[in-house]
Amino acid sequence: MRPTRLITPEDAPVLAELLRANRDFLAPWEPVRSESYFTVAGQRAVAVCALAMYEQGLTAPRVILDEAGQVAGRVNLNDIVRGAFQSASVGYWLSAAANGRGLATAAVRDMVRVAFGELGLHRVEAGTLLHNLRSQRVLERCGFVRFGVAPSYLNIAGKWQDHALYQLLKDHLP
Predict the structure, then answer these.
(1) Cα 100 vs. chain centroid, distance in angstroms?
(2) CATH code for position 23
(3) In the chain, fewer beta carbons within 10 Å around the N or the C end?
(4) What is the rounded (10 degree) CA torsion for 31, 97, 5, 61?
(5) For the whole model, what pTM was predicted?
């Protein structure tokens, strides 16, 4: 069984429940979200929008599956750029209960396979908060190399925060 699969609108109820149950756990790592984001309707809208962007070749929105095949989080290739760049960024989250079991590492490895195999990209980038050591370890286990720090990179938890930047190049796969 693959560790990820394409998101569907039918995933909305389980995603909404995971997000509500893990709201405090995820809050330090996520942008501030509206209340509607945590509802089934909100997650259905997120999925429909992500699938429309997928059809345009702009993103690869997937859910992370646990050992039993149940949805445990999300992983995305975002901002797919073609032309001379051939790059995308990867982002992911897991429920608290799913942490520490290798699911994020398996999901990121699967997304690297999608990026370099199915999509033919040259580069995948990721950014983490400077103090998010667990996420940095996931990226490093997948072969990503830290290449810099971006000051005030993303608005996370209500404030602009610095991020460590990582990348993996197709010709540098471990």
Answers:
(1) 16
(2) 3.40.630.30
(3) N
(4) 0
(5) 0.95
